[in-house]
Amino acid sequence: MEIGPRPPAGPPAPAPGGTGPWPVVAAVLVGGWTVLVTVSGQVVGWAVDQAVLAAGLRRAVATWPLVALGTVLLVGAPTLALALLPRAPAVRAVGRVWLAGALAAGALTLLRVVPPVHQEAYLAALAGTGALLAVVLARLTRRRPTAGPGRAVDPSSGPAAVAEPATDSVGAGRPGGDRPAGGRRRVGPVTLLAVAAGLALLLPWAWVGALGGLLETLLAALAAAALGALAGVLLDSALWAHFTVGAPPRPARLVLVGGLVAGVVLVLVAAGAGQSGAQLPALFVLPPLGVVLAALHAAALRSGGPAGPTPVRWLVGLGLLGPLALVDPEEVTLLLATTRDVPFWVAVATGVALAVAVLLAVGYAVLLARRRAAAPRRRVAALAAAALLAAVVVVHVVPGQPGLYGERLLVVLREQADLSGVPAGVPGRAGRDARAAEVYRRLVGTADRTQGDLRRELTRLHLHPTPYYLVNAIATDGGPAVRAWLSGRPEVARVLVDQRLRPLPAAAPPARGNRPAPTGPAWNVSLIGADRVWNELGVTGSGVVVGSSDSGVDGRHPALADGFRGGDDSWYDPWSHTRTPTDRGGHGTHTVGSAVGRDGIGVAPGARWVGCVNLDRNLGSPAHYLDCLQFMLAPFPTGGDPFTDGRPQRAPDVLTNSWGCPPIEGCDAGALRPATAALAAAGILVVVAAGNTGPYCGSVTDPPAPYPDVLTVGAVDRARQLTRFSSRGPATGGLAKPDLVAPGADVLSAFPGGGYATLDGTSMATPQVAGVVALMWSANPALVGDLDRTRRLLRETATPAGVPPGANRCGGDADLTGAGLVDAYAAVRAARG
Q: Region (Disordered): which ranges (predicted)?
């Protein structure tokens, strides 16, 4: 059967392009321009988000409204001209549908003003906006229906000029029909083929992806359905009809020309499909589906009538479900692109899905658009859809990552422990241990007294609460509804989103060092005079314990193995629950090596270390940062209860922390403030990295770096010049930060696997200052726990550090280099004196 009705006697109907080639040329140029502008705008918007995130700046809320406005203006103007100026009815119809798509893309892009950390709220807005756009466009383009599938349409009508049947076709008992002889509606073979194609596109995402929470997954499905409905309104039967008019109708014209027009529409739909980063896969995968939809429409026409919106809804909705439901957009970030993390696997899934889409386009075009071919029987199409559905389930359950991995919440209570008046006790370790024990007692007592009712209620609701005492807080399951309920309780101060990483299909290969061991003290160790402390003063840090919260530590590294304190309370891994020190990322091994490593890489090679894992795949969360800081105040044995089994007398003396908790991980400015205050009250010195968000002023922002009770460290290079990346002050409230600087460029230290590596960052500078404190306290044990005097000695003995010419002076040198470059030799001598 040929496509379309048989033409009446008389002269042939005009071709869809009208008279002359220029309208068609204009349409081609406008279509190419639309794709170029839309894709470029989405990529640039995501790149800006990533640049801001990498620079540590606050999120640029105006980015996506500007992208939306640019898309509407740059695409809307030529498509409006295309809809009004040409005499060719088909070209005007194409212009109208592209204009409607551009307006829809702009409206959906605006939704990205919702912060990425609130994914459920964004998906709810996406579902509602997509559905509203579909309803509005359907009402605006509604026209009087034609008499039947065999009657010609008015080529001058806009999208949806023909009222589509609710099913694939109206042919009862025919190969493409949805309605059997009894009149009961059923799904026809064209819709089933669309479902099968959509499930084929879902397969790679079912393998590499993982679902979020239950509500998040349901909202993602609703959003995908809403965008599928929007695509169904844009790609209605009236649009396809412009490519079926002719004498005789040509299947190639419908599939090729109609497929290209539909592909441009799908680019516009994909532009609004997901938070920043999640829309990128759709921009690649959806456009080839225009050819698939054209082939399905050709098969439906041959079987008795137009396909209607149902196949479009299913195919586009399933094509979008993968990236919307199975990928966390916050993890599609360049910060994770250095390893086989989420960006790598998203790229793999996108490549596979694109290949599937292209194969579907070619296969459906060849099989369904041939002039004498008809749609396969309903049973065959149903079997294909059922087989692919089973394949999606099996792939997700067996090689995939089944289960729900939604974000948790951190509930911060109003009442925090009163630590005023904690007695200083005798100087040295005995006094420090007594203070730590008293702080631990007060913290646990406050948490037990104030959390009871809320913990019982959360347990009753099966929300799996985890209590904390260092900050009086509770981590719990829950989405926006639970968050709203908790925020309204009188004992709750605020509720933070506690990020949860979704699992990967395969672990990234562990980091390995590729540099040989140094033949003497590393340059940075000599620059601050630590080797002179060993050789001339005979002090190496013995008797002092340094605690590290980071990605882990390779406990078998030859430069670190002998320094591990050992016992059942010197290692804690709240992520993977490993029982011995391990590190897949390398960052933690490097920082511990700079603090206490042997073989010339560490400042205090005689000190011992304990470790905790608060970063997994270079991302953390407020609760996991608390896990490690809490462990450092009162270490507990493996499997122990932090509330009852803590041992404050085993707390390390000084902590090195080369991390920060930005808003994307769920922290606000005060999230960890009670934690650092409690550690200071216990006499534990907390040394933290300023951050790598220079050269911007006021860039010491991510907790705990801006806090007054921590020692914040910036970075200099070999020439004692402040590095460009080192964060600058002033901190919140005008506080001068950083406090000191240390070498942080091209620093050689230990790396997993027994090798060594050079890294840059304030992360590398921070452990060296912790190592200097270990030398000072080893030289004069009476200083242990005396934070005020230790800070004063470090400031008084620091040497000037340079600032590159032309650098912004911010609030002054104190906001660039603090007191200056740490001087280990002078500080230890002053500590002894």
A: 145-183
pLDDT tens digit sequence for 615-658? 988 889 999 999 999 999 999 999 999 999 999 999 999 999 99
Q: Which of 550, 616, 653, 786 is catalytic?
A: 550
- Burial category of 650 from C-beta neighbours within 10 Å (exposed 0-12, middle 13-18, buried 19 and up): middle
Place of tokens 């990205």: 112
Using alpha carbons only, give the angle 76, 78, 83 rounded to the nearest 5 degrees: 90
Contact between 591 and 763 under an 8 Å Cβ cutoff? The reply is yes
Neighbours of 602 (CB within 10 A): 32
Residue-wise pLDDT for 75-108, tens only, equals 999 999 999 998 889 899 999 999 999 999 999 9
Rounded to whole angstroms, the Cα distance separating 283 from 347 reads 12
Query: Pick the catalytic residue: 621, 726, 727, 763?
Result: 763
Q: What is the mean pLDDT of the chain?
A: 89
Please name which of 735, 743, 717 lies closest in space to residue 810, comparing C-alpha atoms.
Answer: 735
Partners of 496 in the β-ladder: 410
**Edge to edge, what strands does the sheet with 473-477 contain?**
466-468, 473-477, 408-413, 492-498
Would you call 464 a catalytic residue per the annotation? no
Nearest to 570 by CA among 537, 609, 512: 609
Is the pLDDT at 318 greater than 60, yes or no?
yes
Peptide bond into 505 cis (omega under 30): no
Q: How is residue 123 written in tokens?
A: 């998906």
Cβ neighbours of residue 487 closer than 8 Å, sequence gap 6 or more:
494, 495
The CA-to-CA distance between both ends of the chain, in Å, stands at 101
Cβ neighbors of 698 (< 8 A, separation 6 or more) are 728, 729, 730, 731, 810
- Does a cis peptide bond (omega within 30 degrees of 0) precede residue 480? no
- For 814-830, the pLDDT digits (tens) are 999 999 999 999 999 99
Per the annotation, the verdict on 763 as an active-site residue is yes
Contact 306, 165 (CB under 8 A): yes
**Model confidence band, residue 424 (pLDDT cutoffs 50, 70, 90):** confident
Q: What integer is the mean pLDDT of 776-792?
A: 97
Distances (CA, A) of 493 to 164, 642, 789: 54, 23, 35
DSSP 8-state code for residue 753: T
Q: Which helix (H) or strand (E) holds 231?
A: helix 214-234
* Greater pLDDT, 144 or 594: 594
Q: Which two tokens stand for residue 82?
A: 């295309």
User: Span 185-201, mean pLDDT?
Assistant: 90
CB 512 within 8 A of CB 753: yes
Give yes or no: 587 in active site: yes
Q: How many other CB atoms are there within 10 angstroms of residue 379's CB atom?
A: 10
Q: Using omega within 30 degrees of 0 as the cis cutoff, is the peptide bond preceding 116 cis?
A: no
Q: Cis peptide leading into 695, omega within 30 of 0? A: yes
The mean per-residue pLDDT over the stretch 153-166 comes to: 38
**Torsion over CA of 274, 278, 283 and 288, rounded to 10 degrees?**
-90
Q: Where would I find the beta strands (DSSP E) of 282-432?
A: 408-413
* Cβ proximity of 680 and 726 under 8 Å: no
Please report which confidence band the pLDDT of residue 143 belongs to, taking 50, 70 and 90 as the band edges: low
Contact 270, 279 (CB under 8 A): yes
Query: Are the C-beta atoms of residues 497 and 118 closer than 8 Å to each other?
Result: yes
